[in-house]
């Protein structure tokens, strides 16, 4: 942290010590061009000073041709390389701000856990640098100036989403790939190299839910774009207001979901474990039944069940106690699902003990087994049964519950989590300092970065949208991207799930938080919403990757090429629609 602070101070001192000026060269030839300046010595009869024609290309200047300094003291320039240098410097400072915000958020997560921090603060702080850049792009100057600069904000909004879901998504597939077996990636096993079909990444079902939510978050774009879809010139300002209300509503709903999602996930995993225990018990009873487990009508064979009941009833008192059920559960060796054996026994007892006396008699045992069998039949709809007395679907039910538990992402205690924080007080102070410093740096240098992008755009005649689309996301999302790639390289289903969930979540926050800031700017300042091609790119990429991520949990290596192709496709599509067909 101290090292980065010194870097910030050094950069700030360097750029503030610089002066705005223009490079000049001497020549003995007079010229009426505006590039010629009197040298103040020869009185125009001797030599003149000529502005370098390459480095003096126009930038964001006032009517006198002099650039305006941000905050009245930060340097500005009208040259190509000068603006490029400022973009690199301010971009690096925004990268440091994003790094501080990320570090502070992670420390807060260690102290307070998920819930409010993981569900509300982390997503908001992760999108804060982008939101600030979007905000300052439409705040400065007159409405006409803001209308020109707001394309920088739209470029950042589109570029961040597209980069995360294409370049970073595809890279995470490559670095996180493992061998695929039965359409499931085997943790820490990567022996097939770059096999497009035989290697890939597996995620849990919660990652698929994140992809679905990301696709739903596109709704505000469709709302605000509705007048353009209907080719109507009226009602656009109202559509922006409605879109803003929808965006804020979805943002609140998403944050609430994130807050309660850990509890939902725990309950789903607990239920899946209980189903897995039931399927294992059915499998165990079927395996140990030397005669038909079911009669001709498909009902449990009472004689067989009676012998099985007695085999579990160790003390012979015609009742199964919790200790005897526990011995049964322990004997099945359910180590692969990180099972709390006492909790499992209590849930089995609850399923069977209808009398409430903490014991199971034979009739309760038969009734409970019958209920489990009927559930297994209803779960496996496509079972290849040949008759009512077959038990083939027991194995299908067991495999189904095993896969369901796997998809929920519970890995039997391999969670890479810290046991606790050694010094909570100091960690809290450190986290707050990181968050404060990151916020200050992002707020301070967002505006000059937008000005530098505008200056570079004017100096090179490259539309500011494309500059902000390509360059700014690298600065604001680089820390998040590097973290995702490193985490994916652990080559585990859990790390892959967290990585892709983070990418989908970041795109969702771009579509909600950053868009809400953008729409608020457009509505309050009376700007024109005219970003049809940009919105189309965001919608296409989010729908393709959202549907792709929600319909499957395993991604072979070949899927990364779909993501990579979408990035240049987005740039080409915007260029064609804006400059060939006049969409804007």
From TrEMBL:
Any one GO CC term of the record: vacuolar membrane
Pfam families: EF-hand_7, Na_Ca_ex
Primary location group: membrane
SMART domains the UniProt entry points to: EFh (SM00054)
Signal peptide as annotated in the record: 1-20
Localization, UniProt: Cell membrane
Gene Ontology biological process terms from the UniProt entry: intracellular calcium ion homeostasis; sodium ion transport
MF term (GO), any: calcium:proton antiporter activity
Record domain EF-hand: where: 300-335, 340-375
Alphabetical keyword list: Antiport, Calcium, Calcium transport, Cell membrane, Ion transport, Membrane, Metal-binding, Repeat, Signal, Sodium, Sodium transport, Stress response, Transmembrane, Transmembrane helix, Transport
Record's bilayer topology term: Multi-pass membrane protein
Membrane-traversing stretches: 80-103, 115-136, 156-176, 206-226, 238-260, 431-450, 462-487, 508-525, 531-548, 555-577
Homology family: Belongs to the Ca(2+):cation antiporter (CaCA) (TC 2.A.19) family.
Protein name as catalogued: EF-hand domain-containing protein
Species the sequence originates in: Lactuca virosa
